[in-house]
TrEMBL record:
Keyword Transcription regulation among record annotations: yes
CDD domains: GATase1_AraC_1 (cd03137)
Superkingdom of this protein's organism: Bacteria
PROSITE patterns hit by this protein: HTH_ARAC_FAMILY_1, HTH_ARAC_FAMILY_2
InterPro entries for the chain: Class_I_gatase-like (IPR029062), DJ-1/PfpI (IPR002818), Homeodomain-like_sf (IPR009057), HTH_AraC (IPR018060), HTH_AraC-typ_CS (IPR018062), INH-QAR (IPR052158)
Domain HTH araC/xylS-type, first and last residues per copy: 223-321
Name this protein carries in UniProt: AraC family transcriptional regulator
Keyword field: DNA-binding, Transcription, Transcription regulation
Molecular-function GO term, any one: sequence-specific DNA binding
Species of provenance: Streptomyces spiralis
SMART domains the record matches: HTH_ARAC (SM00342)
Length: 339
């Protein structure tokens, strides 16, 4: 629902920066809001550091601050708390956490990117709330802050006036959702197209490359099999075919998959095929039968079952990822795409 609209006055976004902050956590959302201003939005973005001094990001880039925390006296519409590799030090810094709380008190909505969820949690702002963070850190967030209900697969989660998002680029997803909330889907869609990103990224945090998750194997025979599956997902990858390709027995290739990949050959092949189908649906206009055939699923029904089982979304809904951020009437993208 668009609660603001074209006639809305300027909305203020405050981005809290600190030494070691991750650069894209800051610049990704800022770019979304700046781009929105080209399509009817009216955002004023300001950066704030504890003492008003510039900070050096984890990438070594300098970011200037418009204000210090003490200089922030007027309320803002959105407070953005980015993350950074040094979050474990920051969660023990009482003065820093007090700055987070003070800024939060002046914000209509407080949002975090990536490990910024740890900073909000340490400040006590996520107690009893649902939240997410980068998939690598989700378990640690849940263990450190048991009062926070962690949703590890969500791209972003809204709970009341608090929003949290997954790793790095998910800050763009969250910001697009805010643009839609403020100015409507048409403005958010224009921004997404301008930035060449999804309005609503389908499939949660399960979208990183299957092949990139596989540890490097010293087994030359298995490497040949893995490479062939990745290069030709629609090919013949039955267990017996893979065993012949590797020059080993069916039993041996199954054992290699368990030891080196951590899954069965059939599950691995399905994961690669699913990823290939995602790419075709994202980038092309092929019909579902063609996508199913090219990726080895055979039929649209098999393709649909795999998508629903692994991603909680049909192929058609996945392809519709540019239509909305899913902000209207749902708290997380993972909920929206499952409908």
């Amino acid at each position: 629902m668009n609660r603001y609209g074209p006639g809305t006055g300027t909305l203020t976004v405050t981005v809290f920066v600190f030494p070691g902050v991750r650069l894209l956590d800051v610049t990704g959302p800022i770019e979304v809001f700046a781009s929105a201003n080209e399509f009817g939005g009216r955002y004023r973005v300001r950066t704030v550091s504890e003492d008003g001094a510039e900070v050096i990001t984890s990438a070594g880039t300098r970011i200037s601050a418009d204000l210090s925390v003490d200089d922030v006296r007027e309320p803002c519409d959105v407070l953005l708390i980015p993350g950074g590799p040094q979050w474990e030090t920051l969660v023990k810094d009482d003065a820093f956490l007090d700055s987070v709380r003070r800024l939060h008190e002046k914000a209509r909505c407080t949002a975090s990117v990536c490990t910024g969820a740890f900073l909000l949690s340490a400040a006590g702002l996520l107690d009893g709330r649902r939240a997410t963070t980068h998939w690598r850190h989700a378990q640690q967030l849940a263990l450190r802050f048991p009062s926070v209900r962690v949703e590890p697969d969500a791209i972003f989660v809204r709970d009341g006036r608090m929003m949290t998002s997954a790793g790095v680029s998910a800050g763009i997803d969250l910001s697009l959702a805010l643009v839609e909330d403020h100015y409507g889907a048409e403005v958010a869609r224009a921004v997404a197209k301008d930035m060449v990103v999804f309005m609503q990224r389908p499939g949660g945090q399960s979208q990183f490359s299957v092949r990139s998750q596989v540890p490097h194997t010293r087994q030359a025979a298995l490497r040949r099999v893995l490479d062939e599956v990745a290069e030709n997902p629609g090919g013949n990858h039955t267990l017996s075919a893979m065993a012949r390709r590797a020059g080993v027995s069916v039993r041996h290739v199954t054992r290699l998959f368990y030891e080196e990949v951590g899954t069965t050959p059939a599950r691995y092949v399905e994961q690669v095929r699913l990823e290939a189908a995602q790419v075709l649906l994202e980038t092309g206009d092929d019909s579902m039968p063609v996508v199913a055939r090219r990726t080895g699923f055979g039929s649209p029904e098999s393709l649909r079952r795999a998508f629903v089982r692994h991603l909680g979304v049909t192929p058609g809904a996945f392809r519709a990822g540019f239509r909305t951020t899913g902000v209207g009437g749902t708290d997380s993208v993972s909920e929206a795409v499952s409908r």
